[in-house]
Amino acid sequence: MTSFPLPAWRSPPAAARAAGTLCVLALAAGAADAQVTLGGTLDLATRHVRNGDLGSMNSVVSGANTTSKLVIRGREDLGGGLSAGFFLDGTILADSGAANSPFWDRRATIGLTHQRYGEMRMGRDWVPTQLVWNSMDPFATLGIAGANTFRSVYGSRALGQAFGSNAAGASQNPTLRVANAVEYILPGGLGGFNGALIATAGEGGSAGAGQTKGDGFRLGWAQGAWQLGASQFTVRNAAAEERFTDRVWGVGYDAGFARFSLAQRRWAYGSDTTVNSLFGVSVPMGAGQLKLSVLRADQTGATDALSANDATLLGVGYVYALSKRTALYAHAARLSNQGGASFAIAGGPATSGVATAANYFGGQRSTGFELGMRQDF
């Protein structure tokens, strides 16, 4: 065992203490019978975004090709086809060195898995709709061309009305992940079929504040060149205790020379809907991959004016693998708004959907380019 001199003690911040404790526990478990692994990714890119006549901005961003993250997971074989496991996954904001809040924001679960009967899982996890949607997007819903570009409480009226057009609604709305979840996941070996059920406890709070009361499902089939998926998640404590529904379906086909995908995601709250339609293509090119996508947001509201606020995103990218762990990439995107739509590519000058605001962006165009590197560990 290698020893290292210890520096003078200083009390670390809470997040660092939590991470350090978990690492010690992971190492202790690894010394016993449990299998514990530590891994993750660092991904950084330089980005340039121009938002119409509001000007442009340059930045360094984290996670434009693969989310920068720290992952600790473990599994213990209990015999008879049964195993216990945990999974901790937290975003690293690699451009600043900070961590997200909560620390394990991407996933924090514990569960029991049986080879024949499936898995029961509890904790913080992905909503089933995001899993299907992500699997159909060549850009994995990340970066300037990702299929979650229109997942904005400021641009999508259905999201804004359901969860609030504010910072809390933007970060806590349950179209990505949910807390306080109980899940059942189907086992493998079902002829290509896969699926899951999920229910979340609101614990007396509101969905816009991250305390979602909801339920949903995911069902898919993958065999040979084909992949099919459908999912729904219903939020039962959106604003005014009304229901919000998130539905996704998608089809993927790998023709060998290219993989094609077609998918749609629909958000609905009251009279407001936002329908995201995606067409994607991934083409292997030697050690690299060319990616193309077209994403369309069609909004419907109580008036013709609200129903005219649509947008289209065109994306192209190339990822070149230097090794199994390291890659370089370049992405370019153009977003065009119609009517009073004010969607924008992330990383540009601040925009507003309020017509009287100095930075009103309704009907304008947003363009972007990013160049980056990722490394898995």
Whole-angstrom Rg: 22 Å
Helical stretch tally: 5
Count of discrete structural domains: 1
What is the CATH homology-level superfamily? Porin
List the strand order in the largest sheet. 1-3-4-6-7-8-9-10-11-12-13-14-15-16-17-18
The arrangement of helices and strands along the chain is: HEEEEEEEHHHEEEEEEEEHEEE
Protein name: Porin
Subunit structure: Homotrimer.
Membrane topology: Multi-pass membrane protein
Subcellular location: Cell outer membrane
Describe, in short, the structure shown:
It is found in: Cell outer membrane. InterPro entries: Gram-neg_bact_OMP (IPR050298), Gram_neg_porin_domain (IPR033900), Porin_dom_sf (IPR023614). It is built from five helices and 18 strands.
Word description of this protein:
12% of the residues lie in helices and 50% in strands. It is mainly beta and 377 residues long. It has a single domain (37-376), classed as Beta Barrel (Porin). A 16-stranded antiparallel beta barrel has the order 1-3-4-6-7-8-9-10-11-12-13-14-15-16-17-18. It starts with 13 loop residues before the first helix and ends with a strand. 38% of the residues are buried.
